[in-house]
Amino acid sequence: MENYQRIVDYLFQLQRAGVKWSLDNIRVLLSELGRPERSWPSVHIAGTNGKGSTAAILESILIQSGRKVGLYTSPHLLDFTERIRVNRQPIPQEAVIDFTAMIRSCVERIQPSFFEVSTAMAFWYFREQGVDIAILETGMGGRLDSTNVVSPLATAITPVDMDHQNYLGNTLEEIAAEKAGIIKPGVVCLTNNHDPRILRVLEQKCKKTGSSFENIFDNSACSFRQLLLYGSYVDLRYRSWNLSNIFLSLAGLHQSENALLALAIAWHLQESFPVSERSIQKGLASVAWRGRLDLVSASPPVIVDVSHNPAGVKKSLDFVHRFFPKTAIRAAVYLQDDKDYVEVGKLLAGGCQRVYVIPLSTRAPLPPEKLYEAITAAGGTAQILDNFSQLLDLIQQTTADNQPWLLIGSHYLAGEAYRQLNCSITNVELQV
Fold first, then answer.
1. How many contiguous H segments (helices) and E segments (strands) does the chain have?
2. Peptide bond preceding 159: is omega within 30 degrees of 0, i.e. cis?
3. For the chain, which domains are there?
4. What is the distance between the alpha carbons of residues 134 and 114, in angstroms, rounded to a whole number?
5. How many whole angstroms separate alpha carbon 87 and alpha carbon 105?
6. pLDDT value of residue 164
7. Residue 132, CB-side half-sphere exposure with 13 Å CA sphere
8. pLDDT value for 44
9. 35 backbone φψ class: left, alpha, beta (φ>0; ψ -120 to 50)
10. Distances in Å between the alpha carbon of 149 and those of 27, 85, 212, 253, 289?
11. pLDDT at 426 (0 to 100)
């Protein structure tokens, strides 16, 4: 739809406004729209790694319990509409066009950022659709994130790590304090962080706001029965919920901790949104969240992963190493210029046979030479490719030897992979 593409181009050019470190603009936009954020209850999730997966798992559980669920996440993989969903269905292109026309004069007047406008669009669309509940993922921080204008039923903080230091701070404690900005007076805050420094920051914030705080690991347990490239069979317990030998359709050991956090949130929503253990089981088995250790081809095995900071990349490599030796893995990587490319380079150098650095035309790419130098300086073998088509040729050449590929580092690279790789999602029976 040509008109839709013009509108999306217009929205993305608002990125020139940069990050607005204030809630003033989003409040003006929402006021113009009649305060749609007051028309539905919400769950608010912040963190560095795992917040999208946690949100998607909770969405799936609530959908299976018969609820109409809004989900707001970022960034997208293929199209802007993925960011705003109701019961897994993206916002229609016509709704994007209509909303932008309705709000455009206000946008021209106050010059908000792209994220501020997309947040206002999500909140408006959820009201128009009459959702029972909305699950909101922060964009980057928490305290001054555009989503932080809601009065949620529960807040959750997923694992915090070093990322976006130029905005959030240079220590884990500083970054955790920004994430903790979503904690609201009297509203429960749940977390699946392990680091005592982060837990201390969150607990102190909850004491100040009079909010109950729970480290979910105090009330939960997980054990793996079978680990597969496309998911896991696990036993999960949270308080009185005991789920035995259930299938979690997201790959990776860390997804069990995201699932436990989603379970904890669902537990604390019981008064307003009761769910059965059957709904939980069906929700875990049917959750779909692309770009997270996503097996998109069986021959050769091709795994697409959006991890882009050292903690996320390490978890992904550790998982892939359970199925393939380091000497067999070839990786393709692209990073944005605000990422810790030195540490990521070290991890890829030590965890892969060869690394291909992919240049992409995006808003703020890291010069490929920097990543190449980081990988080779750490003892790895690397090569800079001219474009994604070159990578596609290399992957096709390894079909016969079934050599695994890991495409990692960015939503941009994942999106390009989904666009260009003609692969079907195939269940591969590989086990630990």
1. 15, 17
2. no
3. 2-286 (3.40.1190.10), 294-420 (3.90.190.20)
4. 20
5. 31
6. 52
7. 13
8. 98
9. left
10. 8, 19, 20, 33, 26
11. 36
144 alpha carbon, distance to own chain's centre: 19
**What 3-state class would DSSP assign to 248?**
strand
The first and second tokens of residue 318, run together, are 């550790």
Rounded CA gap, 49 and 163, in Å?
10
Which token pair is 124?
């408006």
Q: What is the pTM of this model?
A: 0.93
DSSP, res 366: P
DSSP character for 186? T
State how far the Cα of 229 lies from the Cα of 429, in Å rounded to an integer: 8
Rounded Cα–Cα distance for residues 301 and 299 (Å): 5
Asked if the bond preceding 90 is cis, omega within 30° of 0, the reply is: no
Give, in order, the Cα–Cα distances in Å from 278 to each of 66, 69, 281, 288, 395: 12, 18, 5, 18, 41
What are the backbone angles phi and psi of residue 353, rounded to the nearest 5°? -70, -45
Which residues, given as ranges, of the chain have pLDDT below 50? Answer: 423-432
Per-residue model confidence (pLDDT) at position 54: 98
Contacts of 55 (CB under 8 A, 6+ apart): 43, 45, 71, 73, 135, 136, 137
CA distance 2 to 195: 49
User: What are the C-alpha distances in Å from 77 to residues 64, 81, 88, 238, 415?
Assistant: 25, 10, 15, 32, 4
DSSP state of 365: B
C-alpha to C-alpha distance for 155 and 92, rounded to whole angstroms:
28
Cβ(385)–Cβ(333) under 8 Å? no
CA distances from 144 to 23, 141, 246, 258, 396 (A): 6, 7, 38, 24, 45
Sole residue written with tokens 């908000």: 112
343 in Cβ contact with 311 (< 8 Å): no
Q: What is the pLDDT of residue 338?
A: 86
Measured N-to-C along each axis, helices 93-110 and 2-13 cross at an angle, to the nearest 10 degrees, of 30
Q: Scan for tokens 């420094």, then name that residue.
A: 197
pLDDT at 165: 55
- Is 423 in a helix, a strand, or coil? coil
User: Cα(386)–Cα(142) distance, rounded to whole angstroms?
Assistant: 37
CA neighbours within 13 Å on the CB side: how many for 28?
17
